[in-house]
């Protein structure tokens, strides 16, 4: 149980850092560079996924699942694309369909995708 709590804390710490990268870059791209919010969200999400992958395999998860680095990377990219799709869907629904500010919707979308990421990564990397 202690190891699980430590892992969740590490995942949370990495998640917070990835969130600041994602959220900050999205706002910068949208507000400063004038990029459409869905494109900004795509760019920022992609950058944060790269950071998250590196930290997840180096520090958070015990990646000794008998699979090659290529297999692990393919899994990570596949589920990150699913997470991106979920993020973009929630952003679009919240902003375009419900009318909530994109910065607020991003907070909710990040929380949903973070839970999805933890469950799928723990299942894959440590099964």
Automatic annotation (TrEMBL):
One of its GO terms (biological process) is polysaccharide biosynthetic process. Keywords: Membrane, Transmembrane, Transmembrane helix. The chain crosses the membrane at residues 12-36, 42-61, 73-93, 99-119. Its main location: membrane. It is found in: Membrane. The keyword Nuclease does not apply. Residues 10-124 form the GtrA/DPMS transmembrane domain. InterPro entries: GtrA_CellWall_Glycosyl, GtrA_DPMS_TM. GO terms for cellular component: plasma membrane. It is a multi-pass membrane protein. It comes from the Bacteria. Pfam families: GtrA_DPMS_TM. Belongs to the GtrA family. This is Sugar translocase. It comes from Dubosiella newyorkensis. The lineage of its organism: Bacteria, Bacillati, Bacillota, Erysipelotrichia, Erysipelotrichales.
